[in-house]
């Protein structure tokens, strides 16, 4: 059972254990004075103060940090960074955590809650417009505080997969964690800059957004541990509808590296896959349609964008196989055809199209064997990483499979889980846990453990990008579509529609602000000056009428058989609902939640 910080008073302090070289402080004390915040380590005595008037940082000695008693004292579990706005600075601290498991012997924690400490007393000197802007920025910080899927370790770099970490110089572990980290996967990279400038290495914690699950089962009376760890790239961070495709540098939306680790009898293996949006310039602007039109942006740089993306993959992962799971018809078909045309110009990368919806339309998970047969030779050639208990490398993974659909969520997760199960069988056979003819599927219990990991993994990644649970989860869990699964998918689809149309514009602004895509400075243009945003105040009313109308229509229709009055009520409710939808749809771009800061980038 996971232990949260609520149990901290009854549990022994982690500070009793010595810190590893390069490790961060595990337990911190926050002291809130009227004029400053003091944050001090309970591990080693290091401390610093942040002025509440402007956010200036001052290192403190242990004696200075302990001085004074007229303050509020609380425990925090990390400093996630600092952001500077118009009125001053805001310090993001981790206020609650829970144990998520371990990675290579080091504890991994999930961030339960965060809070921004305000150092903004200069707000009284701002103009009325600047105060309005600052209030909006602060509302975005409150959204950022609720970011889900954040993980960290105090003494282990979590940004590198096992193969990359094992091949780097041993001396790197003596460096501070932020210097060890791959900046692509540090969610709070932009927020760490002031802490780095102040040389507060002991307090700098890289946060990884993604998914971390771990489970154990038994084979041949010996334990097997599987860990599923996904790392989301920060180069094109965003929400489902507001970050599509690639930018001019070749970075794609929803790019995630997923590593499946297996530990058995002293051996550890790792199989890595990646996913990411189709690396073309394209968009899908919300307009209250259930499925907005996809639009390919014609740009002379498109061939170079695709080249940059795959050159980066080839350099990092080696031989690359691309699995495009999109439809061959409609807008998806146009996008898929454009992708295929560009891939014809890329050397050293194999492109495979697999129309998931068409081939698997019966809802049978095992039909993916058709796809696997096409790429089996390439996957076996790429292999996986394997090392023994002495840390000696026995095998290396020489390439990667890159999967995508439109969102890189549902179809992608089903496909990646299928490939991961195939690799898991090979790894366990090599380790001696299975014979050459056996599969993990021979044991229902063990197979269920594996499926549950991938279902939870898919849900977490979907919540981060789309705001709802993943669809098609029962394909992973049961190998087929089920009625409860269809109902759950329907609810998730409605949730996505609502969030994408009415909330994701503001969420996108929050991500752009904390990731540094939008920089706040004195004299910069106000996010309110573009106009056209005031209609957002009508969104709660419009959406409430629509949802209420649909609910009332459904209820009255269920009563139609009883008398004519219910039939008339159904017609009235349906008419009102349709009328509101038509009105809102006619003004779709005004009613939809749209980013104010950066828009589409």
What's the topology here?
Elements: E1 28-32, E2 36-41, E3 47-51, E4 57-60, H1 62-66, E5 72-76, E6 79-84, E7 89-103, E8 106-119, H2 128-145, E9 150-152, H3 162-166, H4 177-180, H5 193-197, E10 208-219, E11 222-232, E12 256-264, E13 267-275, E14 282-283, E15 295-296, H6 302-317, E16 319-324, H7 330-343, E17 349-353, H8 356-359, H9 369-382, E18 385-387, E19 393-395, E20 399-404, H10 410-431, H11 444-465, H12 473-478, H13 483-502, H14 504-515, H15 539-558, H16 564-586, H17 588-591
Parallel strand pairs: 13-20, 16-17, 16-20
Antiparallel strand pairs: 1-2, 1-5, 2-3, 3-4, 6-7, 7-8, 8-9, 9-10, 10-11, 11-12, 12-13, 13-18, 14-15, 18-19
InterPro entries: SAC_dom (IPR002013)
Keywords: Membrane, Transmembrane, Transmembrane helix
Pfam family, one: Syja_N
